[in-house]
Amino acid sequence: MLLSRLVVTVIAWTALIMSAPAATRVMPIDEVKPGMDGIGLTVFQGTTIEEFKVHVLGVLRATVGPRRDLILARLEGGPLAKTGVIAGMSGSPVYIDGRLVGAVSHSLGSFSTEAIAGITPFEEMRTATSTASVAATARRPFAATGRLTPAAMVDALRDVLGPVRPFAAPAEAAGAGTGPLGDPRLMTALRPIATPLFVSGFSPGVIEPVLSVFQQAGFVTVPGGGSTIQALPAPGGMAPLRPGDPVGVALMTGDLYLGATGTVTEVDGTRVYAFGHPFYNLGHTRFPMTRAFVHAVLPSLLTSMKLSSVGETIGTIDQDRATAIAGTLGPGPRTVRVTLSLEREKGERRQFRFDVADDPLLTPLLTFAALLNTFSSYERDLGTSSFAVRGTASVHDHGDVVFDDVYTGDQASSNAALSVVAPLAALMTNDREPVQIDSLHLDVQSTELPRVTTIERAWIDATDIRRGRTVPLKILLRNWRGDVGVHTIPIEIPLNAEGTLTVLVADGARFAQFEQRDGRPTAAPASVAALIKQLNQVRRSNRVYIRLLTRDAGAIVGTELLPSLPASVLAVLGGDRPTSGGSALQNATLGAWEIAVGQAVSGVRALTISLSGNTP
User: Which position has the higher pLDDT, 91 or 160?
Assistant: First the structure.
Protein backbone atom coordinates (compact mmCIF):
# COMPACT_ATOMS: atom_id res chain seq x y z
CA MET A 1 0.00 0.00 0.00
CA LEU A 2 2.83 2.35 0.93
CA LEU A 3 4.69 1.43 -2.23
CA SER A 4 1.67 2.15 -4.41
CA ARG A 5 1.24 5.59 -2.79
CA LEU A 6 4.93 6.33 -3.38
CA VAL A 7 4.58 5.40 -7.05
CA VAL A 8 1.54 7.62 -7.43
CA THR A 9 3.40 10.52 -5.76
CA VAL A 10 6.42 10.10 -8.04
CA ILE A 11 4.17 10.00 -11.11
CA ALA A 12 2.33 13.13 -9.95
CA TRP A 13 5.57 15.07 -9.39
CA THR A 14 6.89 13.90 -12.76
CA ALA A 15 3.72 15.11 -14.50
CA LEU A 16 3.97 18.44 -12.71
CA ILE A 17 7.58 18.92 -13.79
CA MET A 18 6.79 17.95 -17.38
CA SER A 19 3.89 20.43 -17.47
CA ALA A 20 5.91 23.32 -16.00
CA PRO A 21 6.02 26.48 -18.09
CA ALA A 22 8.54 26.37 -20.91
CA ALA A 23 10.06 29.60 -19.54
CA THR A 24 11.74 27.44 -16.86
CA ARG A 25 13.31 25.27 -19.61
CA VAL A 26 15.11 27.77 -21.82
CA MET A 27 18.23 26.88 -23.79
CA PRO A 28 20.83 29.70 -23.59
CA ILE A 29 22.15 30.83 -26.95
CA ASP A 30 25.69 29.80 -25.95
CA GLU A 31 24.52 26.17 -26.03
CA VAL A 32 23.12 26.45 -29.55
CA LYS A 33 25.48 24.90 -32.13
CA PRO A 34 25.38 24.44 -35.91
CA GLY A 35 23.91 21.07 -36.88
CA MET A 36 21.38 20.92 -34.05
CA ASP A 37 17.84 19.91 -34.95
CA GLY A 38 14.67 21.06 -33.29
CA ILE A 39 10.98 21.64 -33.84
CA GLY A 40 8.87 24.74 -34.22
CA LEU A 41 5.18 25.32 -33.56
CA THR A 42 2.74 27.42 -35.55
CA VAL A 43 -0.77 27.37 -37.04
CA PHE A 44 -1.07 27.06 -40.82
CA GLN A 45 -4.88 26.83 -40.85
CA GLY A 46 -7.65 27.20 -38.30
CA THR A 47 -6.46 26.88 -34.70
CA THR A 48 -4.56 23.58 -35.00
CA ILE A 49 -0.94 23.93 -33.90
CA GLU A 50 1.41 22.02 -36.22
CA GLU A 51 5.08 21.15 -35.93
CA PHE A 52 7.79 22.03 -38.43
CA LYS A 53 11.44 20.99 -38.47
CA VAL A 54 14.27 23.39 -37.59
CA HIS A 55 17.90 22.80 -38.66
CA VAL A 56 20.38 25.18 -37.02
CA LEU A 57 22.90 26.64 -39.49
CA GLY A 58 24.76 28.90 -37.08
CA VAL A 59 24.64 31.79 -34.65
CA LEU A 60 24.94 35.39 -35.88
CA ARG A 61 26.42 37.65 -33.21
CA ALA A 62 25.47 41.33 -32.87
CA THR A 63 23.30 41.10 -35.97
CA VAL A 64 20.40 43.38 -35.14
CA GLY A 65 22.27 45.53 -32.61
CA PRO A 66 24.97 45.35 -29.94
CA ARG A 67 24.60 42.01 -28.14
CA ARG A 68 21.48 41.31 -30.19
CA ASP A 69 22.06 37.86 -31.66
CA LEU A 70 20.14 35.70 -34.11
CA ILE A 71 20.14 31.98 -34.72
CA LEU A 72 20.15 31.14 -38.43
CA ALA A 73 18.10 28.05 -39.31
CA ARG A 74 16.44 26.19 -42.16
CA LEU A 75 12.75 25.45 -41.68
CA GLU A 76 11.00 22.43 -43.18
CA GLY A 77 7.54 20.91 -43.06
CA GLY A 78 3.96 21.85 -43.77
CA PRO A 79 3.70 24.32 -46.66
CA LEU A 80 7.14 25.87 -46.02
CA ALA A 81 8.78 24.23 -49.04
CA LYS A 82 6.29 26.08 -51.24
CA THR A 83 5.86 29.31 -49.28
CA GLY A 84 9.19 29.99 -47.61
CA VAL A 85 9.04 31.91 -44.36
CA ILE A 86 5.46 33.15 -43.93
CA ALA A 87 4.32 36.58 -42.79
CA GLY A 88 2.40 35.84 -39.60
CA MET A 89 4.90 33.21 -38.38
CA SER A 90 6.69 35.83 -36.31
CA GLY A 91 6.93 34.47 -32.78
CA SER A 92 6.62 30.77 -33.67
CA PRO A 93 8.49 29.02 -30.82
CA VAL A 94 11.48 26.79 -31.56
CA TYR A 95 12.52 23.96 -29.22
CA ILE A 96 15.71 21.89 -29.12
CA ASP A 97 15.77 18.83 -26.86
CA GLY A 98 12.51 20.00 -25.30
CA ARG A 99 13.93 23.39 -24.29
CA LEU A 100 12.72 26.71 -25.67
CA VAL A 101 15.36 28.36 -27.83
CA GLY A 102 13.53 31.38 -29.21
CA ALA A 103 11.08 32.68 -31.79
CA VAL A 104 11.13 32.62 -35.58
CA SER A 105 11.40 36.33 -36.32
CA HIS A 106 13.50 37.14 -39.40
CA SER A 107 13.52 36.05 -43.00
CA LEU A 108 16.42 36.01 -45.43
CA GLY A 109 15.85 38.11 -48.54
CA SER A 110 13.06 37.83 -51.10
CA PHE A 111 12.41 35.17 -53.75
CA SER A 112 14.29 32.60 -51.63
CA THR A 113 14.03 28.96 -52.71
CA GLU A 114 14.37 27.72 -49.12
CA ALA A 115 12.80 28.79 -45.83
CA ILE A 116 15.87 30.30 -44.17
CA ALA A 117 14.93 32.17 -40.99
CA GLY A 118 16.43 34.07 -38.11
CA ILE A 119 15.42 33.04 -34.58
CA THR A 120 15.44 35.59 -31.76
CA PRO A 121 16.77 34.02 -28.52
CA PHE A 122 14.01 33.86 -25.94
CA GLU A 123 16.33 35.21 -23.25
CA GLU A 124 16.53 38.48 -25.20
CA MET A 125 12.76 38.57 -25.64
CA ARG A 126 12.12 38.15 -21.94
CA THR A 127 14.78 40.61 -20.86
CA ALA A 128 13.70 43.35 -23.27
CA THR A 129 10.04 43.17 -22.25
CA SER A 130 10.70 43.11 -18.49
CA THR A 131 11.11 46.91 -18.49
CA ALA A 132 8.80 48.57 -15.99
CA SER A 133 5.72 50.06 -17.64
CA VAL A 134 5.49 53.83 -17.76
CA ALA A 135 3.00 56.15 -19.38
CA ALA A 136 3.47 56.35 -23.14
CA THR A 137 4.71 59.70 -24.38
CA ALA A 138 5.43 61.11 -27.80
CA ARG A 139 8.88 62.10 -28.98
CA ARG A 140 7.68 65.56 -29.85
CA PRO A 141 4.28 67.27 -29.64
CA PHE A 142 2.04 68.13 -32.53
CA ALA A 143 1.38 71.83 -33.00
CA ALA A 144 -1.81 72.91 -31.23
CA THR A 145 -2.58 75.58 -33.81
CA GLY A 146 -1.92 76.25 -37.46
CA ARG A 147 -3.21 74.67 -40.64
CA LEU A 148 -3.14 70.89 -40.62
CA THR A 149 -3.69 68.95 -43.83
CA PRO A 150 -4.11 65.18 -44.32
CA ALA A 151 -0.63 64.96 -45.82
CA ALA A 152 0.82 67.00 -42.95
CA MET A 153 -0.91 64.70 -40.47
CA VAL A 154 0.67 61.59 -41.97
CA ASP A 155 4.07 63.31 -42.35
CA ALA A 156 3.94 64.42 -38.71
CA LEU A 157 3.34 60.88 -37.54
CA ARG A 158 6.09 59.52 -39.79
CA ASP A 159 8.47 62.18 -38.49
CA VAL A 160 7.59 61.57 -34.85
CA LEU A 161 7.82 57.79 -35.09
CA GLY A 162 11.07 58.09 -36.99
CA PRO A 163 12.56 55.50 -39.30
CA VAL A 164 12.33 51.93 -38.09
CA ARG A 165 15.72 50.27 -38.45
CA PRO A 166 15.09 46.54 -38.30
CA PHE A 167 18.48 45.31 -39.44
CA ALA A 168 22.15 46.19 -39.01
CA ALA A 169 23.96 48.46 -41.45
CA PRO A 170 26.67 46.74 -43.51
CA ALA A 171 29.50 48.48 -41.69
CA GLU A 172 28.20 47.31 -38.31
CA ALA A 173 27.70 43.73 -39.45
CA ALA A 174 31.06 43.36 -41.16
CA GLY A 175 32.83 41.86 -38.17
CA ALA A 176 30.07 39.55 -37.03
CA GLY A 177 30.49 35.80 -37.21
CA THR A 178 33.03 33.80 -39.16
CA GLY A 179 33.11 32.24 -42.60
CA PRO A 180 30.02 32.52 -44.81
CA LEU A 181 27.83 33.58 -41.88
CA GLY A 182 30.00 36.67 -41.39
CA ASP A 183 29.26 38.04 -44.86
CA PRO A 184 27.82 41.57 -44.42
CA ARG A 185 25.45 40.95 -47.31
CA LEU A 186 23.88 38.10 -45.33
CA MET A 187 23.39 40.36 -42.32
CA THR A 188 21.66 43.12 -44.23
CA ALA A 189 19.41 40.64 -46.05
CA LEU A 190 17.97 39.45 -42.74
CA ARG A 191 14.87 41.45 -41.95
CA PRO A 192 12.01 41.01 -39.50
CA ILE A 193 9.28 38.86 -41.00
CA ALA A 194 6.58 41.12 -42.41
CA THR A 195 3.68 41.57 -40.00
CA PRO A 196 0.25 41.12 -41.62
CA LEU A 197 -1.84 44.25 -41.06
CA PHE A 198 -5.51 43.45 -41.53
CA VAL A 199 -7.82 46.19 -42.76
CA SER A 200 -11.61 46.06 -42.98
CA GLY A 201 -14.16 48.72 -43.89
CA PHE A 202 -11.73 51.34 -45.25
CA SER A 203 -11.73 52.72 -48.76
CA PRO A 204 -8.30 52.54 -50.45
CA GLY A 205 -8.07 56.27 -51.11
CA VAL A 206 -8.47 57.10 -47.42
CA ILE A 207 -6.42 54.36 -45.78
CA GLU A 208 -3.47 54.21 -48.20
CA PRO A 209 -1.68 57.33 -46.78
CA VAL A 210 -2.11 55.92 -43.27
CA LEU A 211 -0.93 52.46 -44.29
CA SER A 212 2.17 53.95 -45.89
CA VAL A 213 3.44 54.78 -42.40
CA PHE A 214 3.13 51.13 -41.39
CA GLN A 215 4.37 49.69 -44.68
CA GLN A 216 7.67 51.52 -44.29
CA ALA A 217 8.11 49.64 -41.01
CA GLY A 218 7.71 46.21 -42.58
CA PHE A 219 3.96 45.63 -42.37
CA VAL A 220 2.13 43.98 -45.26
CA THR A 221 -1.50 44.93 -45.83
CA VAL A 222 -4.03 42.09 -46.02
CA PRO A 223 -7.81 42.40 -46.49
CA GLY A 224 -9.50 40.97 -43.44
CA GLY A 225 -11.09 41.96 -40.21
CA GLY A 226 -12.48 40.92 -36.89
CA SER A 227 -16.04 39.99 -37.70
CA THR A 228 -15.78 36.27 -38.45
CA ILE A 229 -14.82 34.75 -35.09
CA GLN A 230 -16.05 37.19 -32.48
CA ALA A 231 -17.55 34.33 -30.44
CA LEU A 232 -15.14 31.52 -31.36
CA PRO A 233 -14.41 29.48 -28.18
CA ALA A 234 -10.92 28.71 -26.98
CA PRO A 235 -9.67 25.56 -28.76
CA GLY A 236 -10.32 22.40 -26.79
CA GLY A 237 -11.47 24.37 -23.77
CA MET A 238 -7.84 25.17 -22.98
CA ALA A 239 -6.26 28.44 -21.92
CA PRO A 240 -6.89 31.38 -24.27
CA LEU A 241 -3.41 31.17 -25.75
CA ARG A 242 -0.74 28.50 -26.16
CA PRO A 243 2.77 28.64 -27.60
CA GLY A 244 2.30 28.45 -31.38
CA ASP A 245 -1.19 29.97 -31.36
CA PRO A 246 -1.94 32.99 -33.56
CA VAL A 247 -2.37 36.23 -31.63
CA GLY A 248 -3.74 39.61 -32.67
CA VAL A 249 -2.95 43.22 -31.81
CA ALA A 250 -6.02 45.40 -32.34
CA LEU A 251 -5.56 49.07 -33.23
CA MET A 252 -9.22 49.74 -34.09
CA THR A 253 -12.40 47.72 -33.70
CA GLY A 254 -16.09 48.35 -34.22
CA ASP A 255 -17.52 49.48 -37.55
CA LEU A 256 -13.96 49.65 -38.91
CA TYR A 257 -11.12 47.28 -38.16
CA LEU A 258 -7.35 47.64 -38.21
CA GLY A 259 -5.00 45.19 -36.53
CA ALA A 260 -2.01 42.91 -36.88
CA THR A 261 -1.35 39.23 -36.21
CA GLY A 262 1.63 37.10 -35.28
CA THR A 263 2.37 33.99 -33.22
CA VAL A 264 2.69 33.31 -29.49
CA THR A 265 6.18 32.29 -28.41
CA GLU A 266 5.55 31.55 -24.74
CA VAL A 267 2.84 31.76 -22.10
CA ASP A 268 4.26 31.99 -18.58
CA GLY A 269 1.29 32.12 -16.24
CA THR A 270 -0.63 35.17 -17.46
CA ARG A 271 2.41 36.63 -19.25
CA VAL A 272 2.49 36.27 -23.06
CA TYR A 273 5.53 36.75 -25.31
CA ALA A 274 5.19 36.99 -29.10
CA PHE A 275 6.60 38.12 -32.47
CA GLY A 276 10.36 38.00 -31.71
CA HIS A 277 10.70 41.47 -33.24
CA PRO A 278 9.00 44.81 -32.60
CA PHE A 279 5.48 45.76 -33.60
CA TYR A 280 6.68 49.38 -33.96
CA ASN A 281 9.14 49.54 -31.04
CA LEU A 282 6.91 52.04 -29.22
CA GLY A 283 7.99 50.91 -25.76
CA HIS A 284 5.14 50.87 -23.27
CA THR A 285 1.80 50.36 -25.03
CA ARG A 286 -1.87 49.79 -24.22
CA PHE A 287 -3.03 47.69 -27.20
CA PRO A 288 -5.81 45.08 -26.97
CA MET A 289 -4.51 41.51 -27.25
CA THR A 290 -6.89 39.27 -29.19
CA ARG A 291 -7.16 35.69 -30.27
CA ALA A 292 -6.89 34.96 -33.98
CA PHE A 293 -7.95 32.38 -36.57
CA VAL A 294 -5.92 31.45 -39.65
CA HIS A 295 -8.11 30.93 -42.72
CA ALA A 296 -5.32 29.95 -45.10
CA VAL A 297 -1.73 30.58 -46.16
CA LEU A 298 -1.28 32.59 -49.35
CA PRO A 299 1.91 31.44 -51.14
CA SER A 300 3.93 34.14 -52.89
CA LEU A 301 7.44 34.41 -54.26
CA LEU A 302 7.64 37.91 -52.79
CA THR A 303 5.91 37.52 -49.40
CA SER A 304 3.80 34.54 -48.40
CA MET A 305 1.33 35.40 -45.66
CA LYS A 306 -1.28 34.01 -43.34
CA LEU A 307 -4.83 35.20 -44.01
CA SER A 308 -6.37 35.60 -40.58
CA SER A 309 -9.19 37.13 -38.60
CA VAL A 310 -9.15 38.14 -34.97
CA GLY A 311 -11.51 37.33 -32.15
CA GLU A 312 -12.33 38.69 -28.74
CA THR A 313 -9.98 40.69 -26.57
CA ILE A 314 -8.22 38.48 -24.02
CA GLY A 315 -5.58 40.79 -22.57
CA THR A 316 -3.30 43.78 -23.02
CA ILE A 317 -0.11 44.17 -25.06
CA ASP A 318 1.90 46.42 -22.75
CA GLN A 319 5.42 46.13 -24.17
CA ASP A 320 6.63 46.72 -27.73
CA ARG A 321 10.41 46.31 -27.76
CA ALA A 322 13.19 45.61 -30.25
CA THR A 323 13.10 41.82 -29.76
CA ALA A 324 9.47 41.07 -28.86
CA ILE A 325 6.05 42.23 -27.85
CA ALA A 326 4.62 41.08 -24.54
CA GLY A 327 1.39 41.39 -22.63
CA THR A 328 -0.81 40.05 -19.88
CA LEU A 329 -3.89 37.88 -20.17
CA GLY A 330 -7.04 39.27 -18.57
CA PRO A 331 -9.19 42.33 -19.14
CA GLY A 332 -8.37 44.39 -22.19
CA PRO A 333 -7.00 47.92 -21.95
CA ARG A 334 -9.03 51.08 -22.01
CA THR A 335 -9.65 52.33 -25.53
CA VAL A 336 -10.94 55.63 -26.87
CA ARG A 337 -14.61 55.18 -27.71
CA VAL A 338 -15.62 57.25 -30.75
CA THR A 339 -19.35 57.61 -31.46
CA LEU A 340 -20.43 59.38 -34.62
CA SER A 341 -23.91 60.41 -35.68
CA LEU A 342 -23.96 61.33 -39.38
CA GLU A 343 -27.03 62.88 -40.98
CA ARG A 344 -27.27 63.83 -44.62
CA GLU A 345 -29.58 66.65 -45.66
CA LYS A 346 -33.07 65.19 -46.14
CA GLY A 347 -31.65 61.75 -45.40
CA GLU A 348 -31.54 59.24 -42.57
CA ARG A 349 -29.31 59.55 -39.54
CA ARG A 350 -26.67 56.85 -39.18
CA GLN A 351 -24.83 55.85 -36.02
CA PHE A 352 -21.23 54.59 -36.00
CA ARG A 353 -18.93 53.35 -33.26
CA PHE A 354 -15.16 52.88 -33.25
CA ASP A 355 -12.89 51.76 -30.41
CA VAL A 356 -9.42 53.15 -31.07
CA ALA A 357 -6.27 51.99 -29.29
CA ASP A 358 -5.10 54.50 -26.70
CA ASP A 359 -1.72 55.70 -27.94
CA PRO A 360 -0.41 59.29 -28.14
CA LEU A 361 0.80 58.84 -31.70
CA LEU A 362 -1.61 56.40 -33.28
CA THR A 363 -4.93 57.50 -31.77
CA PRO A 364 -5.11 60.85 -33.63
CA LEU A 365 -4.06 59.32 -36.96
CA LEU A 366 -6.46 56.38 -36.72
CA THR A 367 -9.32 58.61 -35.58
CA PHE A 368 -8.69 60.87 -38.57
CA ALA A 369 -8.75 57.88 -40.92
CA ALA A 370 -11.98 56.56 -39.37
CA LEU A 371 -13.79 59.90 -39.59
CA LEU A 372 -12.63 60.71 -43.11
CA ASN A 373 -13.46 57.20 -44.31
CA THR A 374 -16.98 57.44 -42.89
CA PHE A 375 -17.54 60.88 -44.38
CA SER A 376 -16.31 59.73 -47.79
CA SER A 377 -18.53 56.64 -47.68
CA TYR A 378 -21.72 58.68 -47.40
CA GLU A 379 -20.81 61.95 -49.12
CA ARG A 380 -19.23 62.66 -52.49
CA ASP A 381 -15.46 63.06 -52.78
CA LEU A 382 -15.51 65.50 -55.70
CA GLY A 383 -17.31 68.83 -55.75
CA THR A 384 -18.46 71.21 -53.06
CA SER A 385 -19.96 69.91 -49.85
CA SER A 386 -20.54 71.19 -46.33
CA PHE A 387 -20.13 69.55 -42.92
CA ALA A 388 -21.48 70.94 -39.66
CA VAL A 389 -19.56 69.37 -36.77
CA ARG A 390 -20.69 69.47 -33.14
CA GLY A 391 -19.54 67.37 -30.24
CA THR A 392 -17.16 66.95 -27.35
CA ALA A 393 -13.93 65.17 -26.47
CA SER A 394 -14.04 64.28 -22.78
CA VAL A 395 -10.63 64.64 -21.14
CA HIS A 396 -10.30 62.73 -17.89
CA ASP A 397 -10.18 65.08 -14.87
CA HIS A 398 -10.01 68.14 -17.15
CA GLY A 399 -13.42 68.66 -18.73
CA ASP A 400 -14.36 68.80 -22.41
CA VAL A 401 -12.97 70.12 -25.65
CA VAL A 402 -15.98 71.46 -27.54
CA PHE A 403 -16.45 71.18 -31.31
CA ASP A 404 -18.88 73.51 -33.06
CA ASP A 405 -18.00 74.56 -36.59
CA VAL A 406 -18.95 74.38 -40.26
CA TYR A 407 -16.64 73.41 -43.12
CA THR A 408 -17.43 73.87 -46.79
CA GLY A 409 -15.65 73.64 -50.13
CA ASP A 410 -13.90 70.94 -52.13
CA GLN A 411 -12.07 69.55 -49.06
CA ALA A 412 -14.82 69.95 -46.50
CA SER A 413 -14.72 66.32 -45.35
CA SER A 414 -10.97 66.29 -44.64
CA ASN A 415 -11.14 69.70 -42.95
CA ALA A 416 -14.01 68.49 -40.75
CA ALA A 417 -12.04 65.39 -39.73
CA LEU A 418 -8.88 67.40 -39.08
CA SER A 419 -10.77 69.90 -36.93
CA VAL A 420 -11.43 67.06 -34.50
CA VAL A 421 -8.07 65.34 -34.75
CA ALA A 422 -5.84 68.40 -34.31
CA PRO A 423 -7.02 69.04 -30.71
CA LEU A 424 -6.68 65.33 -29.91
CA ALA A 425 -3.11 65.32 -31.23
CA ALA A 426 -2.24 68.45 -29.26
CA LEU A 427 -3.64 66.98 -26.04
CA MET A 428 -2.23 63.46 -26.34
CA THR A 429 1.27 64.60 -27.30
CA ASN A 430 1.55 67.51 -24.86
CA ASP A 431 4.76 67.63 -22.85
CA ARG A 432 3.12 68.65 -19.55
CA GLU A 433 1.36 65.51 -18.37
CA PRO A 434 -0.21 62.34 -19.77
CA VAL A 435 -3.76 62.89 -20.98
CA GLN A 436 -6.56 60.34 -21.01
CA ILE A 437 -9.32 60.83 -23.56
CA ASP A 438 -12.39 59.20 -22.06
CA SER A 439 -14.60 59.47 -25.14
CA LEU A 440 -15.24 61.36 -28.34
CA HIS A 441 -18.82 62.07 -29.38
CA LEU A 442 -19.64 63.82 -32.67
CA ASP A 443 -22.87 64.90 -34.34
CA VAL A 444 -22.25 65.72 -38.00
CA GLN A 445 -24.66 67.04 -40.62
CA SER A 446 -23.62 66.99 -44.27
CA THR A 447 -24.95 68.46 -47.48
CA GLU A 448 -23.77 68.88 -51.05
CA LEU A 449 -24.61 72.58 -50.96
CA PRO A 450 -21.98 75.29 -50.37
CA ARG A 451 -23.32 76.61 -47.06
CA VAL A 452 -21.43 79.92 -47.08
CA THR A 453 -22.55 83.27 -45.71
CA THR A 454 -20.70 86.38 -46.93
CA ILE A 455 -20.12 89.59 -44.97
CA GLU A 456 -21.23 92.10 -47.62
CA ARG A 457 -21.46 95.32 -45.65
CA ALA A 458 -21.02 96.82 -42.18
CA TRP A 459 -21.89 100.32 -40.97
CA ILE A 460 -22.58 102.38 -37.85
CA ASP A 461 -26.19 103.57 -37.88
CA ALA A 462 -25.46 106.86 -36.06
CA THR A 463 -23.91 110.23 -36.86
CA ASP A 464 -23.04 111.59 -33.44
CA ILE A 465 -20.62 109.11 -31.84
CA ARG A 466 -19.35 110.11 -28.39
CA ARG A 467 -17.63 108.47 -25.43
CA GLY A 468 -20.03 106.64 -23.14
CA ARG A 469 -22.70 106.22 -25.80
CA THR A 470 -23.99 102.98 -27.34
CA VAL A 471 -24.31 103.01 -31.11
CA PRO A 472 -25.83 100.33 -33.40
CA LEU A 473 -23.50 98.40 -35.68
CA LYS A 474 -25.32 96.97 -38.69
CA ILE A 475 -23.92 93.91 -40.48
CA LEU A 476 -25.42 92.68 -43.75
CA LEU A 477 -24.95 88.96 -44.44
CA ARG A 478 -25.88 87.16 -47.67
CA ASN A 479 -26.05 83.37 -47.78
CA TRP A 480 -25.36 81.00 -50.67
CA ARG A 481 -28.98 81.17 -51.80
CA GLY A 482 -28.88 84.96 -52.04
CA ASP A 483 -31.00 85.53 -48.93
CA VAL A 484 -30.02 88.71 -47.04
CA GLY A 485 -30.11 89.31 -43.31
CA VAL A 486 -29.09 92.32 -41.24
CA HIS A 487 -27.74 91.84 -37.70
CA THR A 488 -27.57 94.70 -35.20
CA ILE A 489 -24.87 94.76 -32.53
CA PRO A 490 -24.96 97.51 -29.83
CA ILE A 491 -21.44 98.94 -29.60
CA GLU A 492 -20.66 100.73 -26.35
CA ILE A 493 -18.01 103.45 -26.67
CA PRO A 494 -15.93 103.42 -23.46
CA LEU A 495 -15.51 106.65 -21.49
CA ASN A 496 -11.72 106.32 -21.71
CA ALA A 497 -11.71 106.00 -25.52
CA GLU A 498 -9.47 108.50 -27.28
CA GLY A 499 -8.63 109.42 -30.83
CA THR A 500 -9.77 107.37 -33.78
CA LEU A 501 -11.32 103.93 -33.23
CA THR A 502 -11.64 100.97 -35.57
CA VAL A 503 -14.44 98.42 -35.81
CA LEU A 504 -13.28 95.14 -37.32
CA VAL A 505 -15.87 92.66 -38.65
CA ALA A 506 -14.32 89.42 -39.92
CA ASP A 507 -14.68 85.70 -40.38
CA GLY A 508 -12.67 83.35 -38.16
CA ALA A 509 -9.76 82.79 -40.53
CA ARG A 510 -9.22 86.48 -41.30
CA PHE A 511 -9.62 87.45 -37.67
CA ALA A 512 -6.96 84.92 -36.69
CA GLN A 513 -4.64 86.45 -39.32
CA PHE A 514 -5.29 89.91 -37.88
CA GLU A 515 -4.37 88.68 -34.39
CA GLN A 516 -1.10 87.30 -35.71
CA ARG A 517 -0.22 90.54 -37.53
CA ASP A 518 -1.13 92.49 -34.42
CA GLY A 519 1.59 90.70 -32.49
CA ARG A 520 -0.66 88.25 -30.67
CA PRO A 521 1.27 84.99 -30.81
CA THR A 522 -0.31 81.89 -29.32
CA ALA A 523 1.45 81.40 -26.01
CA ALA A 524 2.51 77.87 -25.11
CA PRO A 525 0.02 76.69 -22.49
CA ALA A 526 1.50 76.03 -19.07
CA SER A 527 -0.89 73.19 -18.21
CA VAL A 528 -3.40 70.81 -19.75
CA ALA A 529 -6.20 73.00 -18.40
CA ALA A 530 -4.70 76.01 -20.20
CA LEU A 531 -4.35 73.96 -23.39
CA ILE A 532 -8.02 72.95 -23.27
CA LYS A 533 -8.97 76.58 -22.74
CA GLN A 534 -6.85 77.58 -25.72
CA LEU A 535 -8.40 74.88 -27.91
CA ASN A 536 -11.90 75.98 -26.95
CA GLN A 537 -11.05 79.55 -27.92
CA VAL A 538 -9.90 78.71 -31.45
CA ARG A 539 -11.53 81.00 -34.02
CA ARG A 540 -14.36 79.16 -35.72
CA SER A 541 -15.59 79.31 -39.30
CA ASN A 542 -19.26 79.69 -38.35
CA ARG A 543 -18.80 82.92 -36.43
CA VAL A 544 -18.71 86.63 -37.25
CA TYR A 545 -16.12 88.29 -35.00
CA ILE A 546 -16.46 91.98 -34.08
CA ARG A 547 -13.81 94.00 -32.28
CA LEU A 548 -13.67 97.66 -31.23
CA LEU A 549 -10.00 98.65 -31.39
CA THR A 550 -7.83 101.59 -30.45
CA ARG A 551 -4.16 102.27 -31.06
CA ASP A 552 -3.38 102.16 -27.34
CA ALA A 553 -0.66 99.59 -26.76
CA GLY A 554 -1.21 96.49 -24.66
CA ALA A 555 0.36 93.10 -24.07
CA ILE A 556 -0.26 89.38 -23.71
CA VAL A 557 1.22 87.77 -20.60
CA GLY A 558 0.92 84.00 -20.63
CA THR A 559 -2.54 83.43 -22.07
CA GLU A 560 -4.07 86.62 -20.65
CA LEU A 561 -4.84 89.70 -22.76
CA LEU A 562 -3.96 93.02 -21.05
CA PRO A 563 -5.13 96.01 -23.15
CA SER A 564 -4.33 99.72 -22.72
CA LEU A 565 -1.36 99.33 -20.37
CA PRO A 566 0.61 102.33 -19.01
CA ALA A 567 3.96 103.03 -20.63
CA SER A 568 5.79 102.05 -17.42
CA VAL A 569 4.25 98.57 -17.43
CA LEU A 570 4.99 98.13 -21.14
CA ALA A 571 8.62 99.07 -20.50
CA VAL A 572 8.94 96.45 -17.76
CA LEU A 573 7.37 93.74 -19.94
CA GLY A 574 9.50 94.71 -22.93
CA GLY A 575 12.71 94.51 -20.94
CA ASP A 576 11.89 91.20 -19.26
CA ARG A 577 10.22 89.13 -21.98
CA PRO A 578 12.16 85.87 -21.43
CA THR A 579 10.92 85.59 -17.84
CA SER A 580 7.60 87.39 -18.03
CA GLY A 581 6.49 85.61 -21.23
CA GLY A 582 4.91 88.84 -22.41
CA SER A 583 4.51 90.15 -25.95
CA ALA A 584 3.47 93.62 -27.05
CA LEU A 585 0.24 94.43 -28.89
CA GLN A 586 -0.16 97.16 -31.46
CA ASN A 587 -3.88 97.61 -30.76
CA ALA A 588 -5.96 97.49 -27.63
CA THR A 589 -9.38 95.85 -27.65
CA LEU A 590 -12.13 98.02 -26.17
CA GLY A 591 -14.97 95.64 -26.91
CA ALA A 592 -15.56 92.15 -28.32
CA TRP A 593 -18.68 90.51 -29.78
CA GLU A 594 -19.47 87.60 -32.04
CA ILE A 595 -22.43 86.27 -34.02
CA ALA A 596 -23.04 82.52 -34.35
CA VAL A 597 -24.14 81.63 -37.87
CA GLY A 598 -25.32 78.23 -39.08
CA GLN A 599 -23.03 78.39 -42.12
CA ALA A 600 -19.38 79.02 -42.88
CA VAL A 601 -18.65 82.77 -42.88
CA SER A 602 -16.47 84.57 -45.41
CA GLY A 603 -15.43 88.22 -45.59
CA VAL A 604 -13.96 91.13 -43.65
CA ARG A 605 -14.95 94.77 -43.17
CA ALA A 606 -13.20 97.53 -41.22
CA LEU A 607 -14.81 100.81 -40.11
CA THR A 608 -13.08 103.92 -38.82
CA ILE A 609 -14.89 105.90 -36.08
CA SER A 610 -14.12 109.51 -35.28
CA LEU A 611 -15.43 110.58 -31.88
CA SER A 612 -17.58 113.73 -31.94
CA GLY A 613 -16.77 115.14 -28.52
CA ASN A 614 -15.52 114.53 -25.03
CA THR A 615 -18.87 113.82 -23.35
CA PRO A 616 -21.92 111.67 -24.09
Answer: 91
